[in-house]
Amino acid sequence: MVFVIAAVSIGREAHRLDAVAPRAVYMLDDAVEFVAAQLPAESQARLTFDEVQQLLVAHMRWLHAKGLQPRDVIDRPQDIDDELVVSEDTITAWLLGEAERLQIELLDDVDAVRVVQAHLAYFEEIGAVGPRASS
Fold it and tell me: H-helix or E-strand containing 55?
């Protein structure tokens, strides 16, 4: 009898967890450290930690505006209906505009590409990346 109750409970919980988005915890301080460490020396020389943080926050706000960063995500069933393809080119172009708005003067195109690539690598590291789009 105990085995049957345990098997049913485990089966029900496994089914519930299958419908819930995996928990990927984004920590801004960790993301800044990860991205800064991934940048080559010449980009590190041009960007401060504060500027990297501002760029990452801007990127997260862009994701939120696109519906990829909902307010409450704990144990939330996956309910994404529309496909959204996030390309490095789109994010980089938008981030360059944000850098200008934030008055980050030392950021050039190469640094923006490197920040985006490193930030996307951080997302992959914490398990926050969805499936890749087919070509």
Answer: helix 49-65
Distances (CA, A) of 25 to 6, 12, 114, 128: 30, 25, 22, 8
Predicted structure pTM score: 0.72
Evaluate whether residue 97 is within a structural domain. Answer: yes
In a domain, 131, yes or no: no
pLDDT 10s digits, 57-114: 998 888 878 776 656 655 555 555 666 667 788 888 888 888 888 888 766 788 889 9
Q: CA angle at residue 37 from 35 to 40, to 5 degrees? A: 95
Per the structure, the complete domain to which residue 118 belongs is given by: 2-126
Report the candidate in 91, 99, 122, 123 with the shortest Cα–Cα distance to residue 50: 99
